Amino acid sequence: MAEVIRIKKGLDIKLKGKVAVDGYDREAALPELFSVCPDDFHGVKPKVVVNEGDRVKVGSVLFFDKNNPDVKFVSPASGEVVSVNRGERRKLLNVLIKSDGSFESEPFTKADPKDLSAEEVRGLLLNGGFWPFIKQRPYDVVANPNDKPKAIFISGFDSAPLAPNYDFTLDGMKNELQLGVNALAKLTDGKVHIGIHKDNASKVFKEVRGAEVHVFDGPHPAGNVGVQIHHIDPINKGEVVWVVNPHDVVAIGKAFSKGVISFERPVVLVGSEVIKPLYYKSYFGASISNMVKGNVKEGANVRYISGNPLTGKQIAADGFVGAYDSQVTVLPEGDHYEFLGWIMPRLAKFSVSKSYLSWLMGGSKEYALDTNINGGERAFIMSGEYDKVFPMDILPEFLVKAILSKNIEEMENLGIYEVAPEDFALCEFVCTSKIETQKIVREGLDYLRKELA
Amino acid sequence: MKALRNFLDKVKPNFEEGGKLSMFRSVFDGFETFLFVPNTTAKRGTHIHDCIDSKRVMSMVVIALIPALLFGMYNVGYQHFLVNGILEGSSFFDLFLYGAACVLPKVVVSYAVGLGIEFIVAQFKKEEIQEGFLVSGMLIPLIVPVDCPLWILGVATAFAVIFAKEVFGGTGMNVFNVAVVTRAFLFFAYPKSMSGDSVWVSKDAVCGLGGGTVVDSFTGATPLGQAAVAQGDVVMTNAVGDPISTVDMLIGLIPGSIGETSKIAIAIGAVILLVTGVASWKTMFSVFVGGALTALLFNSIGTTPIMNISWYDHLLLGGFAFGAVFMATDPVTSARTEIGKYIFGFCVGMFTIFIRVLNPGYPEGMMLAILLMNVFAPFIDYWVVQANINRRKNRAKNNAFKNINA
Q1: Is B169 on the interface with A (CB under 8 A)?
Q2: Inter-axis angle of helices B25-35 and B92-125, to 10 degrees?
Q3: What integer pLDDT is reported at residue B1 of this predicted model?
Q4: pTM, to two decimals
Q5: Handedness of CA B298, B299, B301, B305 (dihedral sign)
Q6: What letter does residue B237 receive in the DSSP assignment?
Q7: Taking residues A126-138, what's their average pLDDT?
Q8: Inter-chain contact B52–A355, Cβ cutoff 8 Å?
Q9: For chain B, which ranges sit under pLDDT 70?
Q10: What is the ipTM of this complex?
Q11: Domains of chain A in sequence order
Q12: Domain segments of chain B: what residues?
């Protein structure tokens, strides 16, 4: 076993509503409505190729990227295109599909990617609609198929609050994972790296051949692939690496092993407002109605989030699972006033600051946090807050300031190519001044990408 | 609470844009957010937030200042009763009430002037009121001599808030610590009210409290002031000429600025700041280390009386401890990098002793040392950031080298 990479900085936020016993809700109905939303895939300019009423199969192209016509975005279900929704200035909002329940698939070549050429693998992934699930660093956008990445990274654990347990969701997927890794290995001259956590069994990852496994230890964000890249083989200016979520690696592997396209993935429904947190068999873009029906506290004022509470996206009660998400979180909405809250002991609230008493409550107490930001936005006041939850050799506050001042040279110097917005999620959580660091970093990356294009 | 909330909701539209009372929007907003944490929810990004906010941070500092404030009040009374020779037969409450009558007006003036300006600026900029002055407003009365006239205090506070803070963009943007600027303004603009031997002890009756005639042996100079001008061996005395020891300086029943005399009260504040993590222990600790080492250095030279003061007496004299605990640790104006905090703190301590020992004209080196280092804090951070940048550049270079050889 390789040596353990210890992540010291970070924070595990213990929230109420985690899965008590790993298991699927087998009685839940299959989702009926699916939505493929271009905004899920950052940096894509969509061009729609389907019309209302068209019949589609799993893997049928719905739209492609105008900047990169090879990158196709496909249907996760078979059925009928219900509507193509556009917003202001005809911006494509989503393509809505009503599933016929059969999940009939477009054809896919059954083969071991090992025996195929890099070009063949690339073509299959592009045509099968798997390409959008390969993301690149820098910029945290869908990978450009014409790039040769120096390495490909897979994070083998999710350390975010209430995240799914990959030991459970990937159990028995050894073969599919292996084929998926074989396919990815064809796309790089470098290595395929997998990061696993010391305390997890990570059985399937340990058995994979053709990938280098690295063991991490420590709190969130140790599971963020950006943190793992930083500690394994950091990105320097001009370099490109790709990252893929394990569930998508398995989906790729499944296509190669069975010759059919399927975007089935486990999605965990969690959060303090969920009656019985459980796993569901779901799909990217699938409606969450079937999951939340009868399983969310009745009458409660709640917020649905696709993804985890730190980086997820707010969705409606009948919203859809985000393209990269394996988690739906339901939290209490925090749109209420709190009398003199800032001077109260606030025993039910959580803070890393020792000015509240949560540090005396022990590490195992779980909190039901709501969505109130607990204060007002201010200029930077406290220093060193971000550093405590940012386990990279990067000065987060200075990088954020460089982005705010749109100083490209300074951004490059301070390591913007290594980060994604999600790496700043904990900074945003702990920030006394309530600064929206994830939004700032996103805008910084977009600005840089545009200026340097 | 519900009734109060309903009342606020009812009157709120009057204060919003276009309402009858919209000219008081910032005031209403300030009181509303003071009474109730707003109902703002996260719209994007992180959906949950730590329950810390700037009100909490600032109020922790104010709480940490309360022991020094209370002791300061008592000590003002004690000094007065001592020099008027009426200590015998006076109760604790006589002393404390007298001190409170002297000190509270200063607190009121400082807050009224500073917060008034903050409200106007917030109204003008259409922003939420910022809490920074909650701390500055408490610090200012604690770092002035008791005899400082209220109007001078008001002028100095207004100067500092406008020219040291608002012109830079408000709380979080200021280069200099607002309270220290206030004191520096007083020191240079009204030296007679800020230094010398007569301002440190209140000699007249206040609100009918205290009174009497000053005893013959009265010497109003602070121990630090005495040390600065000493010839031969330094013998420090209290306000009636009795010699004092290190322990007296620790307890703090000596003349000096209102909040700075009791090191025990300051230590309680320091514990609150460090336990709650509001102040950086790195800065605070480094100030003391810098001061102690510099004092030891001067001990080894030892050519003037003040050079021979022991390192621990130096740390207890004057405003050293108060400045180290409450003002050098201001996160906005001190270094913001972790390594920078050690350097910043060390230099503050070092320059304080330098100024004290080498320039007897300004015995209170702390104020000038903090101002000086406020200027250099961005420079210290610049070098720490540059080191990080160089590490990244070297990494890229080594990597390119590795690839060529591979």
Answers
A1: yes
A2: 120
A3: 73
A4: 0.92
A5: positive
A6: B
A7: 95
A8: yes
A9: 232, 401-406
A10: 0.91
A11: 4-258 (no CATH), 267-343 (3.10.20), 373-452 (no CATH)
A12: 13-35+58-210, 279-400
